[in-house]
Specification:
single chain; 264 residues; alpha+beta; 6-stranded antiparallel beta sheet; 9 helices
Length: 264
């Protein structure tokens, strides 16, 4: 397997489950092994119902995927087929050179790497392999994953540079904001207002929060570039409409209204 960043060369157990095939999966298989195959088939555009039952339809989709990738069309998911299915995830786990990078620029490079693979939910709200990777093995409606995505990127950047993260990280927006305050890195929207306000000291990459109240934030992501009236983002669990319950990692432009930041 290609090199990875997290876990000092060894993948955390919840990621191992997503990218390591213990035995071939074929027609008749049930449960998570079948589900993962179905999820990745759907991710790659081979649509089918995700029901954790490897039946005739799943076998047919596997054969179509194998044919498209120049593999033998057995309809059985062996190691070679599985590696092709999970290739986008393996790609984002591949270390990026740390040369000439600060922490904030390293964060930006990893965020771009994830964006290029277009992670998205598969099989329902907050479901699928990408969500489980960002959320330490959890998925489902009760696991919004925007903060998990941010934390995962920060961990990759910190481990690549051999440094401690500026904040601990969390799967909760409110916890991330609290950590930023405790570290003295939190910047309120109010500091951007007024005649003497400036955005020039914002880092190339920072964490942004969508604020509902002074103690409640509903969404978070990475701010990647700043302009006078708007900033650019890479964020998870959102969509082109900017919903806090979206379905993908995407890049957006946002205004500063009701936004706070953690400086990186």
């Amino acid at each position: 397997m290609m090199g990875v960043v997290l876990g000092e060369g060894k993948l955390p157990f919840w990621i191992q489950k997503e990218v390591e095939l213990k035995s071939s999966v074929k027609k008749g298989a049930r449960g998570m092994a079948a589900r993962r195959v179905q999820e990745w088939l759907q991710f790659h555009g081979f649509g089918l119902v995700i029901d954790e039952d490897f039946g005739g339809v799943t076998k047919k989709m596997v054969q179509q995927f194998q044919e498209a990738r120049g593999l033998g069309t057995s309809g059985m998911v062996n190691a070679a087929t599985f590696q092709e299915l999970v290739a986008p995830l393996l790609q984002v786990l591949t270390p990026i050179s740390a040369a000439n990078h600060t922490f904030s620029t390293m964060v930006l490079e990893y965020a771009k790497a994830h964006l290029a693979q277009h992670p998205l939910e598969v099989g329902g709200q907050n479901r699928g392999p990408w969500v489980r990777v960002y959320m330490k093995g959890h998925d489902g409606a009760e696991f919004p994953w925007c903060a998990g995505f941010v934390t995962f990127i920060l961990k990759q950047a910190a481990e690549t540079l051999g440094m401690t993260m500026p904040i601990q990280g969390s799967t909760s927006c409110d916890s991330l904001a609290a950590q930023g305050k405790e570290a003295g890195l939190f910047m309120k929207e109010s500091t951007l207002n007024g005649e003497n306000a400036s955005i020039d000291h914002l880092s190339r990459a920072s964490i942004f929060f969508v604020r509902r109240s002074s103690t409640d934030w509903t969404h978070t992501g990475l701010a990647t570039a700043f302009h006078r009236d708007a900033f650019e983002t890479i964020e998870g669990n959102t969509n082109d409409e900017g919903s806090r319950e979206g379905y993908e990692v995407c890049s957006r432009s946002r205004g500063y209204n009701k936004k706070d930041f953690i400086l990186l």
